[in-house]
Automatic annotation (TrEMBL):
Belongs to the OSBP family. One of its GO terms (biological process) is lipid transport. The keyword Transport applies. GO terms for cellular component: cytosol; perinuclear endoplasmic reticulum; plasma membrane. It comes from the Eukaryota. Residues 308-317, 403-427 have a biased composition (Basic and acidic residues). Residues 308-335, 403-428 are annotated as: Disordered. One of its GO terms (molecular function) is cholesterol binding. Keywords: Lipid transport, Lipid-binding, Transport. Pfam families: Oxysterol_BP (PF01237). This is Oxysterol-binding protein.
C-alpha cells in the first residue's frame, strides 16, 4: 500500500449527594418521555431529541476479523483502510463531542468560591468524559480533512465546533464555550491506534484545556490510554488505564488520577483513584470511584483510616494481590466485574453516570447523548456548515441500516479525498484550515491547535466540497 492509497479511518456547595443528584437527573431529562418512531414529540414548539437510531446495528458474526487483522499486527492502524464492519455510525468529531455530556459539572464549578471544590468537579468532568466509551467497541469513522461538527445545546448552555485539521497525522481540533461566557473548553487530539494480536490500543495524544473566566483559571490534562481486548475471539471488553494529571495553572492546585488496569484477577477493573493537592503538595481530598459508574470525594484521613480497617479485616490479603496489566494480552477473557463502588461514610458524590437506554445494545451501545449526535433536526440544514458530518452520506447510510450503500459511499469519499490531495500536490498548494490554526498551548507550551473564531458567524462561502 503506497502513501496515495493510505486512508486513515481510525480515527454550589458540595455538602451532600443530593446537590449533584439534581443535576444528574436533569441530564437524563429525555429518558422518561414517550416516543413516536424513535423521536420525542415537540412540546410548546420546542423540538426534543430522538431516543433511538433509525435502524439497529447489523451483525458482525459473519465477518472474519482475523482474516483482516492478521496482516496488521504491530502496525499503527492509522495507515490501514478499515472495513466498515468495524465502525459505528458516528464520526470521530462527534465522538469527541461526547466529552460535553456532563457539562453541568463545569457550570457547577463556575459557581464555587473554593479552588479545591472547583478542582473536584473538574476532576469529575475529566473522568466522566471517558464514561461513554464503556462497551463502545465500534470504531467511529475517521473525519475527512476539513470535516466539521457543530453542537449547540441552548438548554445546557454551551456550543461547540470541531474540525479535522490534519490527515497525516490525523488531528482533530475542538472548541466549546458556554453561552454566558463562564467557560471555554478546547484542545486537539491525535489518536494513535495499534493492533497487538488480541487487542487494539488507543493512545489519545493531545491536551485538554478548560478555562473558567470568572475565576481566571485554566486547567489542563491529557486523557488515559484505552485498550479493546478480544478483537479476534471472545467477548470484546474495554479498559482505561494510566495517570491523568490535572493542573490548575492559576493556583498551583493539582489532581492526580490513576485509572487502574484490571490486573490478573480483575479486582481493579474500571477503578479510578487519586488525590487533590495544593501548590505546597498538601493533600486536601481523595478521589475514588469507577469511570463506568461514579466518582466520590473524601478527606484523606478518613480514606486512609478506611483502608487500614479493610486491611485489618483481611479485605486486602495477599491472595488478592495482583500484578498490574499493561493493557496487553495477559488475559483474553473479560474478568468478572467486581462489586460496585462502595461509598465510604463521609464521602461526597461528585458524579454518577446516566443509565443507558433500554435499546442501547441494539444501537451500538450508544448513550442517550450519543443517540442524538447525528440527528438532523428541523431547520438545521442550511444553518450548519456544508462540511458538517451530519451531512456525510456513508455515516447516514450506516445509521439507516444500509450497509452496502455505506460501504460504497465510504469508498467514494476516500477516493475523492485522495484525488483532492493529488491535485493539491500537482498545483503545489498547501491545505489551509478554516477554523483553527496551529500554535502552542498558552499554559503548557505544547503544540496545539487554537480556535481562530468566526464559525458561528456562518460564513461558509469558501468551504471545500468534501462530500
Amino acid at each position: 500500500m503506497n502513501s496515495e492509497e493510505e486512508f486513515y479511518d481510525a480515527e454550589t456547595g458540595l455538602e451532600s449527594d443530593d446537590s449533584c443528584e439534581v443535576s444528574f437527573k436533569d441530564a437524563c431529562v429525555f429518558e422518561s418521555k414517550q416516543t413516536v418512531n424513535g423521536k420525542v414529540p415537540s412540546e410548546n414548539g420546542v423540538w426534543e431529541r430522538r431516543t433511538t437510531l433509525p435502524a439497529p446495528m447489523f451483525s458482525r458474526n459473519d465477518f472474519s476479523v482475523w482474516g483482516f487483522l492478521k496482516k496488521c499486527i504491530g502496525m499503527e492502524l492509522s495507515k490501514i483502510t478499515m472495513p466498515i464492519v468495524f465502525n459505528e455510525p458516528l464520526s470521530f468529531l462527534q465522538r469527541i463531542t461526547e466529552y460535553m455530556e456532563h457539562t453541568y459539572l463545569i457550570h457547577k464549578a463556575c459557581t464555587l468560591s473554593d479552588s479545591i471544590e472547583r478542582m473536584q468537579l473538574v476532576a469529575a468532568f475529566a473522568v466522566s468524559a471517558v464514561a461513554s466509551q464503556w462497551d463502545r467497541t465500534g470504531k467511529p469513522f475517521n473525519p475527512l480533512l476539513g470535516e466539521t461538527f457543530e453542537l449547540t445545546r441552548d438548554e445546557e448552555g454551551y456550543r461547540m465546533i470541531s474540525e479535522q485539521v490534519s490527515h497525516h497525522p490525523p488531528i482533530s481540533a475542538f472548541y466549546a464555550e458556554s453561552l454566558n461566557q463562564d467557560f471555554s473548553f478546547h484542545g486537539s487530539i491525535y489518536p494513535k491506534l495499534k493492533f497487538w494480536g488480541k487487542s487494539v490500543e488507543a493512545e489519545p495524544k493531545g491536551t485538554m484545556t478548560l478555562e473558567l473566566s470568572k475565576h481566571r483559571e485554566a486547567y489542563t490534562w491529557t486523557n488515559p490510554m484505552c485498550c479493546v481486548h478480544n478483537v479476534i475471539l471472545g467477548k470484546l471488553w474495554i479498559e482505561q488505564y494510566g495517570t491523568v494529571e490535572i493542573v490548575n495553572h492559576s493556583t498551583g492546585d493539582k489532581c492526580v488520577l490513576n485509572f487502574k488496569p484490571c490486573g490478573m484477577f480483575g479486582k481493579e477493573l474500571h477503578r479510578v483513584e487519586g488525590h487533590i493537592q495544593d501548590k505546597s503538595k498538601k493533600k486536601h481530598r481523595v478521589i475514588y470511584g469507577k469511570w463506568t459508574e461514579c466518582v466520590y470525594s473524601i478527606e484523606p484521613k478518613v480514606y486512609e483510616a478506611n483502608k487500614k480497617a479493610e486491611k485489618k479485616s483481611g479485605g486486602d490479603s495477599k491472595k488478592h494481590k495482583q500484578e498490574q496489566s499493561t493493557g496487553g494480552d495477559d488475559a483474553d477473557e473479560m474478568p468478572d466485574v467486581q462489586e460496585t463502588v462502595t461509598m465510604i461514610p463521609g464521602s461526597t458524590l461528585l458524579w454518577r453516570v446516566a443509565p443507558r437506554p433500554p435499546n442501547s445494545t441494539q444501537m451500538y451501545n450508544f448513550t442517550n447523548f450519543a443517540m442524538t449526535l447525528n440527528e438532523l433536526e428541523p431547520g438545521m440544514t442550511g444553518v450548519i456548515a456544508p462540511t458538517d458530518c451530519r451531512l456525510r452520506p456513508d455515516i447516514r447510510a450506516m445509521e439507516n441500516g444500509d450497509i452496502d450503500t455505506a460501504s460504497r459511499e465510504k469508498e467514494r469519499l476516500e477516493e475523492k479525498q485522495r484525488a483532492a490531495r493529488r491535485e493539491r500536490a500537482k498545483d503545489e498548494e498547501e491545505w489551509s484550515t478554516r477554523w483553527f490554526q496551529q500554535g502552542n498551548n498558552p499554559y503548557t507550551g505544547a503544540a496545539d491547535w487554537i480556535y481562530k473564531g468566526g464559525y458561528f458567524e456562518r460564513r461558509y462561502s469558501e468551504l471545500p466540497d468534501i462530500y
